[in-house]
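Course exercise 7: structure representation. Students receive a sequence record and must write out the corresponding structure in token form. The form below is the worked example handed out in class, using Putative Hydantoin racemase (271 residues). Read each field label carefully; the graders check that inputs and outputs are placed in the correct fields and that the protein name is recorded exactly as given.

STUDENT ID: A-19
EXERCISE PROTEIN: Putative Hydantoin racemase
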Amino acid sequence: MNIKVHVQFISPEGKNDKMFGPAKAAVHNGVLQVVRDAAGAKATVVAGYNDRSAYHMSRGFMEAYNNVGMMESLFQAQEQGADVVLIACGNDPTLYSAREALDIPVVGITESGMLLACILGKRFAMVGIEEGCASLVERNLETYGLVDRAIRRDPVRTADLAENTILWFEQPELVREHVIPRFEEAAFGAIEDGAEVIVTSCGALAALTLNGYSKVTGTDVPVVESVLAGSYMAGMLGILRKRHSLSTSKHRTFKGLPPEVIAHFLAPFRE
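STUDENT ANSWER:
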């Protein structure tokens, strides 16, 4: 069955990116490749960008600015026939708002990674690359009701990888020789504290999947790369909606508003 998967990025398209420029396309293309490989040949994968991006994603108030542009892109995706949305940022920005606003399923990559980890082991830990994002991921861990499935001490760790990630998608040897060793420094600490599964919490770590990495070296601890987990979750939910009419509950939490009401009240912001 052919489904249309809309992959939503938090940043502008490379050609419009005022911070990183056209080179940012390497990251977007790498993430999209993971989604396409997971979704299969019968899926149509399209990208959505955020030309109103505030660029910074490590603080809640900056996330709020980013969410406005993302929501506009998501409304357009639904209007253009998307069957499912995948938000390709480790902080899962605007996830709950999008579930409330849209009729189609909305998937967050890190929530997907956490949920998969619950199947693969008793306790998991998250590893990201930016210390400022850790508190946002911890917030999400609580929101998703998964605190008891994570390790007790420091369930969200940060690898020493606060750097330009574009090169990760251009130089595979850099991932093998630099990214994975630093990622595993954080992962080994989490394993010592009881983690049976490691989950990534940054979209740029899709570079791990592109390099065939899925287990912490010298252990039997799986690494759930969240873009990969989210891609399979999106594919499944897209099919379930299209074939079985199964989608987000609109009973209470994600009830939302009628389309005509949304259009009326947002009209001044869209002029």
